[in-house]
Structures are given as structure tokens and as C-alpha cells.
Amino acid sequence: MSSSLLIKNATVISVDDTIGIQMNSDILVQDGLIKDIGPNLISRHNGEVFDATDCIVSPGFVDTHHHMWQQLIRGVTTDWSLANYLDNIRNIYGSLYTPDDVYTANHFAALDLINNGITTVIDHCHILNSSKHTDAAIKGLKDAGIRGTWCYGFYRNPGRSDLPGFDPDITTPAGFDHQARRQDAKRAREEHFPENNPEKQLLTFGGAPTEAEGMTEEALRDEIDFFRSIGARVVTMHVAIGNYAASSFTDSELDLIKNTGSGISATPETELQMGMGHPIAFRAAEVGCHVGLGIDITSNQSNDMLALMRLLLQAERGKRHRENPGTVPIDIQPKSEEALYMATMGGAKSIGLDHIIGSITPGKRADLVITRCDDMNVVPVTKPVGALMYNAHVGNIDTVLINGKIVKKDGKVVGVDWPKLREDVRTRTARMLDIAAKAPPPSEDSWTRLLVDP
Ligand SMILES: [Zn+2]
């Protein structure tokens, strides 16, 4: 049976060069695809209609790097350095999750991303303390109906059998070593992603090596080869972090990334807070790399892509002003459109999905965000991209479509029993905070060891 939706009278920010920004335009969605864009499509349509008067329609946002499991410990790292983060998140919280905690975290995180107009995510999942954790993490994303690639994380949380109040057999069972993880990754790929084809399914399988900068080149190559051998759609890893490199890609490294067609997921908020140097995004884009944006950790930042774009843009503008003291620029760079590109098309390119998503282009999948612009914080709209990036917030995001299906409607994520989920989240979080509070303080250099597989 064919399904059809006409979004009419919208301001369309297509992020497609040939289509551009269109006022009073219609978008025809049919069987999950964007069929047509233009004025007055209504005359030859007899399906469902969405009146998008006073609305901006933009492509669904693409979050290219996210540890979804941290949704349950929202806010705990907001004043932490990288050392504090590694000491507490990797050494404590990562060892406290039960498989059910992982399910709730991933499910809730995906729903909250959808709420924020993020329709595609790369989940770098390094909470896999047993094969039950693996199954729970995948199910959480699948049940939420988000598009993306779930990446099997080899990083091994150390386990904290010294802490009272939880059962290490459930949270971090012994024996789940690197070899067991390889077998489990292969099993997960075969069991949950038999086709692993992004044209046919929303969620696909990828790999995340242990920690690129904490292992030998040989070991890293071996892990990448392994993921390729089991058909990982993407392989993603942390690079240029902390005291290892301070966001310090050399020019030749950026050239290599560009020439191999690899993508960079820039995570400006983490980079700024945790001492990783100036955000890499625009420098990498200028040399021609595919650059997308990543939320990274909800233990610290919000899932708000609009805020992330603005933060990145203004940090970059600030840097360029500082580099030219005593001058008043006639033209400021970069432009808002460039940050929006990274959050949509650039992200899609960097994860190899730009033939499917990333712009409002006929033939692509209908992942769309409809933002109402009739509230006090948005009126009047003089520049559509500016209104979206500088004025709108999650509360203005009225409707979200993934694959043509409405997943947020009238400002609410569809099919969620929020009071029940909220209670579940609070209970799980309270249990973990309680256990973590009993942990002894870490030694001064303990965090340096945590980038390496223990
Ligand atoms: Zn990360």
C-alpha cells in the first residue's frame, strides 16, 4: 500500500545546492521518499496534508559521534576535565550498567535525539560488558526507530567488584575479554544485521576499535581489519584527544583523511571543555575533509544540534577575530550555512550515507524536521537559516519524520509513555549515583591508563 504526505506552504532549507532555500514551497513524501519539491504540488495530490505555514522544513540532523549509553548519567560531567571524565565515567559508571540499564539508556537517548530533530546517529557503543549488554544496546535503538549505525565498541570497562551494591556478574562478568568480544561482535552482526544494508534498514552495524591512541599501530590495524572482515559498514574511533595530541591533526594527516575519503566527526563542545584544542571542524573542512558534528556525551552536553552548531560557529568566529587583532572585519567567516551543512549533508557524507539522507532532495529518504516559527522566540523570521540556528529551540520543533514516518508530532515524540520512562530513568540513575558515591578517589595518574584496554 502506498502512503503519501504533502507538506505544504513551507520555508524549505534544502541544503541542496540546486534547490536552495524556497519560500511557500511544498514537499511531497511518498513511500518514505522525498518525491518532489516546489510550489503548488497540492493540485495533484490527494493523500494526507501537513500545513507548514510559518514553518521551516530542514533535513533531519546527523549526529556522527555519540555514546548513547551515557543518557542515564546526564549532567554528571558538566564541570569535569578529560581526566575527571576518564576516571569516573570509564573507571566507575561504565562498570555499573546492567543490560537493562543499557536498553533504557539507548532507547531514551534515541527518543531524545528524535525530539531534537536528530534523525541519524553513529552510536560508538563502549558499554559492552557482556553479550546481553550488546543485545540490549541494539534493541534500544531499534525500538526507538532512529536511523544510524550502531558501532560495536571493543573498549573494556574495568569492572568494580570492590564497590558494594551491585552484582558484577550482571554488570561486568569476568571472562568477557577481547577474544570474547570479537566473537560477540561477529554474532551481533549476523544475528541483528544479517543484510547490513542502509538502503533496506534504518539501523546498520559498524565497529569501534578499543582506543586508537592507546594501542600499537599493528593492534589497531588488526582491529580495523577484523571489523571489515565481518562487514562493518563504518569503523569509527577517537583520535587527536587530550594530552595525546590536543586536536592536533597535522596538515598531512588531514590530507590523508581527505584522500582516503574518510570522515571526521567533530565534537566541538567536548573539544572546548576537555582541553582538546580549538574545535577541528572548520580547519578540516577547509582542506576538503568530510566533516560532520557529534553530540558525543549526554553526560555533559544536551542533545541540541541547534545549540551545537551555534557554539561551533561562534567559537570559530572568535578565533578568527583573535588572529586579526586591531582590525574590524568587513565580512565575517564562516557563515551560518556552513555550520548547518556540517550538521546535515557534511555529517551524511562523513558516514557514507549522503546518497540516502542529508539534504531535501527528490529520491532521498524523507528524514525531515519541521520547526514552527510562530512563537515569541522566533518571530519575525528574516533569514531562515539564522532563525533556525540562532532563535529556534527544541520546543519549536513540531514534527520529525524518519523514512517518511512521523516520529514526533505536535511537539511530542510519538508512542512514548513518558511518565513511565521518566520514572524508570530516575530509578536507574539514582542507583548508579549511589554506588558511584562510595568509590574511593582515583589516584593522580589513574586516568592515563584508562585510554588503554585494561
Ligand atoms: Zn567520544
Automatic annotation (TrEMBL):
The protein's name in its UniProt record: Amidohydrolase-related domain-containing protein
Top-rank taxon: Eukaryota
Record-linked PANTHER family: AMIDOHYDROLASE-RELATED DOMAIN-CONTAINING PROTEIN, AMINOHYDROLASE SSNA-RELATED
Annotated keywords: Hydrolase
Any matching Pfam family: Amidohydro_1
InterPro entries named among the record's database cross-references: Amidohydro-rel, Metal-dep_hydrolase_composite, Metal_Hydrolase, MTA/SAH_deaminase
Residue stretches making up the Amidohydrolase-related domain: 212-407
